[in-house]
Amino acid sequence: MTQLIIAEKPNAAGRIAYALADDEVSKKNRGKAVWYETRVGDEETYVVPAVGHIFTLEQEGKGWDYPVFDIQWKPTYEVRKNSSWMKNYHTNLKNLAEKADSFINACDYDQEGSVIGYNILKFVVGTENAARMKFSTLTASDLQEAYDNLSEDLDHGMVQSGLARHILDWFWGINLSRALTLSVKNNTNTFKVLSTGRVQGPALKILVDREREIEKFEPEDYWILEAHLESDKGDIKTRHRKGKFWKEEEADKSKENAEKDGAIVKEVSKNRFKHKPPCPFDLSTLQKEAYSAFRFSPSKTLDVAQSLYESGLISYPRTSSQKLPPKIGYKNILKKIKNQKKYTNLAQKLLDRGKLKPKQGKKEDKAHPAIYPTGSKPDSMSKDDKKLYDLIVKRYFAVFGKAAVRESVKLTFDLSGEMFLGKGKRTLEPNWFDFYSPYVKKKEQVVPDLDEGDSLDISKVDKLDKETQPPNRYTQASLVSEMESRNLGTKATRSQIIDKLYDRGYIDGLSIKVTDIGLGVVEALEKYSPKVLSEDMTRSFEEDMEKIIDGEKTRGDVVEEAKKALGEILQEIKENEKEIGQSLKEAVIETNRKKRELGKCPKCGGTLKVIKTGKSQFVGCSGYPDCDNSYPLPQNAKIVPTKETCDDCDLPTFKVIRRGKRPFEMCPDPDCKSKEDWN
To answer: pTM to 2 decimals?
Structure first.
C-alpha cells in the first residue's frame, strides 16, 4: 500500500517526512519543487508539499465588467502572472497521487490549510475525503502523535467555511474593485486600480472616522502648576491637585498663593499591590507587542512567526487562544530551552520552583493553543527571527512567574493653602519582571521617604501653558486590535487587509494617516453605496461562516445570501457611476503623483522619486537635469515609500514587494552600512 501525505509548504513536508520515517528518507525534486519518499510502518509514503494555495478562484469567461458571480477553481499557475514556477508542485502532486492508495491532509490545521488540502484532493486526486493530521507544532513528537491519532475524515465544517470565505472575498473584492475602477476610468479617462472589500471597506471607514475626529478637533487652552520642592531627604516635583486650570487667572492666583512660604507634608499614603504576569500570546497580542518592542508591522510579525513555526521553533502562530494546556509539557519545554545558553539561568529558576501553573487568558481557539516555544534549539536565525523568538521565549517564561509586588506612594503637600500632589511607584519584588526583561512596561518613579509634617523648601513654581490634544492616530498594531474588537476579519487576514490599504495608497505612515484617495473612496461610498462600509453586514457574514463550521448553515445558503446583498450594492454603484468617477478624479491624480515620491534629495534638496523607463526603474531627482543624483532599485518589484529615513545613511527608505517573497525595507544606497550583513 502507498499513501500520499499533503503538506502545505516544502519546509513542513521535510519535517513531516523525517518525523514519521521508519526507513531512510529520499528527497526528490522537479526543478525547485521537492517531495520526500520513505516508509512509514508497512506503507510506502510520499510527503508532497503544495506552496500555499495552488488553486485559486477565477471568473468563467472573459471580460472586466461587473457583476460577475460565475467562478471556478483553477490551478494558480494558469491564472496569476509570475506564478508559472508553481506548476512543478502541481505536477508532483498529480503524478504521485496516481501511485497512491490512500491520502492524508497534513496542511496547517486552520481554514486555509483545510481548503488547500481539500482542493488538491478534489481537483488532483478526484476525491472529497481523506484522513486528517492535526498538529500545533512541527516538532517530531507532535507530528508523530498527530499521525498516530489521524482523523478518518476531513474537517468538513472548516473546509466548507473556508471555501465560503474565499468565494465571498472574491465576490466582494473583484466586483467592488471593478466597480470603483471603472467609475473613474469611464468618466474621467484616468486609470487607477481602486479596491474595496468585505472587510477592507469597514476597516478604511474606521480610519476615516478617526481622521475626521482629528480634523474637527478644536484644542482648548489650559494651564497646570508644577512645584519643585527640596529637602534633606530629597527633591520632588509635584503638581497642583486641581490638575488642569481652564482659566488662566485662577492658575495665576494659585501660583501666587503657593509661592508665599514653604511646603508641609500634609499626608502620606502608601499602597502595596500585585502586578500579575501577562497571558500567553495569541496572534493579535504578539503583533501588538512586537510592534511596541521592535516596530514590526503586523504582517511582518506574522511572516517572521511563520518562519519560526516552519523551523520547528514555535507553535502555530495563527491562533486566537491565550491558554496553554498541560499536555504541551511545561517542564519538558523548559528543560529543552535550558540547553540554550542565553536562557539557561531563567529556565532553571522556573524549574526549581517545582509545580508550574501558567497565567491563562480568556480567549480560546478550537484548533490551537496559545503561541509557545517548542524548546527546539535554533540552528541559525536572521536578526528579525532572533528578536521575535526572544520575545516569545521570554513571554513563555513570564506566564509562569509570580506576581510582581509594587508600591505606590501618594504625597500631599500644603503650599500656603494650595494642595500639590507628588506620586511615586517602585518595584519591591520583580518576580515575573525578571523573566520578561527587557519587554516589561513599567514606570519606576522613586520619591523621597517623607513623613507627615516634614517641611520642604520651594525651589520654584512653574505655570505651564498646555492645550488639549486630538485623538491619537491608529498604528498598524492598534488597528489590528480595533478590528478584532469589532469582529472584522480574522486573526490571519487583518494584517493582510492593512497591507492592502497601504498598497492601494489609501493610508500612509506608521501613525496612520488617510490619503486623499482613501478619503475620497469612503466619501463616495458613504454617499452612493453605504452598505459597502457596513460593519454590521461584515460581522453578519463572519457569524454565518462560524455557523457553517458548526453545521447550522450551509455554504450554499451563505453564498446565495452574499450574492443577493452584493447585487443590490453593485446596482447602486452602477446607477451612480458618473458621480463616483467625478468625485474621485482629483484624488486619483494626486495619489498617482505622491506614490512615486520617496523623500528629500541629499544633494540638492529636491524630491527623490521612482523613475520608470520601459521595464526598468531607478531613483532619480525631481531637479534633473540640474541635479543628476540617482540610485539603483530592485527590478521586477513594487516600490512603496515608507516616509522614514535610514538610521545609517539618512536616505529615505522604501518597502520592496515581490510576488511570492517576503517584503522587506531598504534604502537606495548600495554601499550603506545597513546592507553589510546581507547575504
So the answer is: 0.86
